[in-house]
UniProtKB/TrEMBL annotation:
PANTHER family: HCA OPERON TRANSCRIPTIONAL ACTIVATOR HCAR, TRANSCRIPTIONAL DUAL REGULATOR HCAR-RELATED. Residues 1-58 form the HTH lysR-type domain. It comes from the Bacteria. PROSITE patterns: HTH_LYSR. Keywords: DNA-binding, Transcription, Transcription regulation. GO terms for molecular function: DNA binding; DNA-binding transcription factor activity. CDD domains: PBP2_LTTR_aromatics_like. Belongs to the LysR transcriptional regulatory family. GO terms for cellular component: protein-DNA complex. Pfam families: HTH_1, LysR_substrate. This is LysR family transcriptional regulator.
Length: 302
């Protein structure tokens, strides 16, 4: 029994005439008659009563027709759902992020994506306290579909694209002697205590920050290493040290903390990452959405 056989049966049942049903199906009548006979034989049930050129449904045929309507409707729904999944209109996207991008472009991308694909569920996972290499590995192992992080290590099976250039700023206590300046020379911070982060979390980012200090003529005196942005800002607010921070973090209004531009100007680059062989339309649609939001999202250096 094939789906087309059920559709042929419905056509005959609705037309109550083999000739009209054949015309509706755009086939000749003999094959249609043969298919209905084969269907009745397969079911071992008489579906139609034929008398003097008239066709009527038997009680068994009426029952079968109601069930077939449900079967065909379910099949049509399955086809439509499969097509929506193929177009990326239904499904799930799991995204890993760092706290910096959740303060900048990611909320806009999630909102726009939700407007375009309301049947796709987006799950966000904070990866800030984990090494960036673990972030990449989670994508490779399909525990995440996409990620956004600073300076991810290159991997042959992971596609990367820069989506955010974020100026670095200095976070310091509001009562710090230099808090009144709009721009602070990095060399003026050589005697400060620094709140830093463990190098294993993001070696490239760590080395960039260290190199900036060294180029300014000093080695930063680290008094504490923290893995959380919020813990770091609390230490800055307490006057225990200063910290380099991405300009996007200015959206975190931490009492007692101010952000100031530094000279020379330096940037932290954030990349979206996804599997190079990715075939999911939902995931690729989010990649495109993030790309569009990125083109409109520029963080001022002033």
């Amino acid at each position: 029994m094939e789906l087309r056989h059920l559709r042929y049966f419905v056509a005959v049942a609705e037309e109550m005439n083999f000739t009209r049903a054949a015309q509706r199906l755009q086939i000749t009548q003999p094959p249609l008659t043969r298919i209905i006979q084969d269907l009745e034989a397969e079911l071992d049930v008489k579906l139609f009563a034929r008398s003097r050129g008239q066709v009527t449904l038997t009680p068994a045929g009426e029952t079968f027709l109601n069930e077939v309507y449900g079967i065909l409707a379910h099949c049509e729904k399955a086809v439509q759902k499969a097509q929506r999944v193929s177009r990326g209109e239904v499904g799930q996207v799991q995204i890993g992020f760092s706290e910096t991008v959740i303060c900048s472009m990611l909320p806009d991308a999630v909102r726009l994506f939700g407007e375009r694909f309301p049947m796709v569920h987006v799950t966000l996972r904070n990866m800030t306290a984990l090494p960036v290499r673990a972030h990449v590995r989670a994508i490779q192992e399909r525990r995440l579909d996409l990620g956004v992080a600073a300076f991810p290590p290159p991997e042959p099976d992971i596609s990367c694209e820069c989506v955010l250039r974020c100026p670095l700023m200095i976070a310091l206590a509001a009562n710090h002697p230099l808090a009144g300046k709009e721009i602070i020379e990095l060399s003026a911070l050589s005697a400060e205590n620094w709140i830093w982060f463990p190098r294993h979390l993001n070696p490239a980012y760590y080395d960039l920050c260290l190199r900036l200090c060294q180029q300014a003529g000093f080695e930063p005196r680290t008094v504490q290493q923290v893995a959380s942005v919020h813990v770091g800002l609390s230490q800055v607010a307490a006057g225990n040290g200063i910290a380099l921070a991405c300009a996007a973090l200015q959206c975190i209004k931490w009492e007692g903390v101010v952000y100031r531009h530094i000279r020379p100007l330096a940037y932290l680059d954030f990349y979206m990452m996804w599997r190079s062989e990715e075939a999911s339309s939902s995931i690729l649609s989010f990649v495109q959405t993030l790309r569009e939001v990125s083109a409109q999202h520029v963080i001022s250096t002033e």
